[in-house]
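Order emerges. For instance:

***
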Amino acid sequence: MAKEYANLINGKPVPARSGKMYENRNPADQDDLVGVFPSSDAEDVNDAVAAAKAAYPEWRALPAQARGDIMRRATEILVKHKEEFAELETREMGKVIKETRGDVQEAIDTGFYAFGESRRLWGTVAPSELPNKMTYVTRQPMGVWGMICPWNFPMAIPSWKLFPALTCGNTAVIKPATLTPASVDAFVGALHKAGVPEGVVNIVYGSGSKVGEALLHHPDVCGVSFTGSSEVGKRIAEVTGKNLKRCSLELGGKNAQLVLNDADLDLALEGVLWGAFGTTGQRCTATSRLVVEAGVYDKMLEMVVEAANKLNVGNGLDETVEMGPLVSDGQRNTVHEYVEVGKKEGAKLVLGGEPLAGGDYDKGFFYKPTVFADVTPDMRIAVEEIFGPVLSVIKVKGFDEGIKVLNSTRYGLSSAIYTKDVNRAMKAVELIEAGITYVNAPTIGAECHMPFGGVKDTGNGHREGGWTAYEIFSELKTVYIDYSGGLQRAQIDNA
């Protein structure tokens, strides 16, 4: 019998006030019921925020190093249960087991990094312009944060938010994605086993329209951290902006890999296969466009089609499988609609373009690896985020046109260039409009100690990951200490 979950409020399991529940099933096998979860609403959010608000004074008063020790202990629990949590992720999200192991490992890396950062929440000391006076800047926590998470990285992305927010001294209410709630329960369970006090982290399950909206509007929520679509991100920015709440937005992408004539084509092939079809294309950093210089276009296209056609698609718990299902029937329908759009626009479908059917495929939401050739930069499949295993291949005359095409979308998250010319590589780093650029590596593969985020419609300037995440979840306080024994007036007495 599948586990029945409850909201976690003030350290205790609490059913949704509505009494309603929903099922979470394996996208590779709909017969596999992962769990049953509450369908919560604003009343449940109110309870959770009240618990987080009550827990905040004691938690913020704990020395940062003590909070960091708890993050370390939680991370050690993740290490111990890595395989168990990876299997859970694969069951509820669908991506292959080697990727969910990587997802849990990313949470582990982020946790150990947080442990280190708890001793590096440094401020700045600067000389005063007046005698017998000192000035410095320190960082302080902010209060209760609302966190709204996506389904494609069910443990890594919650760790990007919770580890730095808690280390800074904040409390939190987290809303997991409705499609992948069990992984967040496992992650927060590790935090509580490690010693996070009751009320510091609260989970409220449910839809964005009810739980998410309630978090946005709640007067006791000081900030919202969101990862998801640009359309929803704009809505969050609108609501939080009206109330002067801080918000951190990590949004969509339409990432391109540029391959020049002098590139190592075998290396470029490995990169685009991993970037386009890893996680079944369901990454904000996925390689959805392959931009190829004319001299190697035909060869590169031939190599991609041949290799993608050999990918083993199936249930991600099978170690031999290279690509799992899409996360839901709705996502599969969206992908197929885009394939039909591409065909109508005149792109040449050279591989895939339809769901996988028959046998075990009928139990899940599988789709064939899909490749379009002769795509032009203005086609919808070249500019809109599809979030599926669909690759658009675009021919360009040279480097300058390649950079222009790469920059020709409203997004700017990740990018890649393959070339042996260091001058071209460095010029690309300068000219590409993206928050992340890889040279001779795919568009996916961010490391936890480095800033993560993008430009244009990909976000609002904040960067998750690395030291920059701690800037999101803390406030600066400037301090002046005058030990002169008299009144000193800056800009007046020193003029």
